[in-house]
Design the sequence.
């Protein structure tokens, strides 16, 4: 995966990682960090806009618990049930408004994100998160598999350029 570093699943990995990338809450307004995830597991109901499954609801809650102390300043989601429901637990915990973004203009969205300092959670899709990671200057690694929901990308902007870290969280992908 090139420059992408893999770190073990769970809160231990987050606790070890965040001190290096998130030096202090006082610096939150000066730094820019992107956390990008595909929506959690969806209900296979045959609809075009399914809700999260029970496993997806649990993964969304885990994501919110993992990011509770991360100093997130912005939450972005596409306007679909599964993405909004993935962002909802963190939105409820932080009180932040969820900004809707559209998947058709990855480059334009990346440009807007790069112009907005802070700590961003972006919830998207298997076909939009890797291109967005790349557009932010990061290394997306391989494509996200159809049933893969456990990736959490961190793209930190620093003086030597973007750094990408890939974390895994929740039930592991078996592919």
Sequence:
């Amino acid at each position: 995966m090139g420059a992408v570093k893999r770190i073990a699943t769970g809160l231990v990995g987050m606790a070890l990682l965040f001190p290096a990338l998130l030096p202090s809450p006082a610096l939150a307004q000066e730094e820019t960090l992107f956390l990008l995830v595909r929506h959690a597991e969806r209900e296979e109901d045959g609809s075009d806009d399914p809700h999260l499954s029970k496993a997806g609801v649990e993964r969304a809650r885990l994501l919110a618990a993992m990011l509770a102390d991360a100093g997130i300043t912005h939450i972005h989601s596409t306007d679909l049930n599964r993405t909004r429901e993935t962002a909802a637990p963190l939105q409820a915990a932080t009180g932040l408004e969820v900004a809707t973004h559209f998947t058709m203009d990855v480059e334009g969205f990346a440009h807007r994100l790069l112009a907005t300092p802070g700590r961003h959670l972006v919830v998207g899709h298997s076909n939009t998160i890797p291109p967005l990671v790349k557009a932010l200057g990061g290394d997306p690694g391989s494509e996200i598999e159809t049933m893969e929901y456990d990736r959490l990308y961190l793209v930190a902007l620093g003086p030597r350029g973007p750094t990408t870290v890939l974390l895994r969280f929740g039930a592991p992908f078996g592919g």
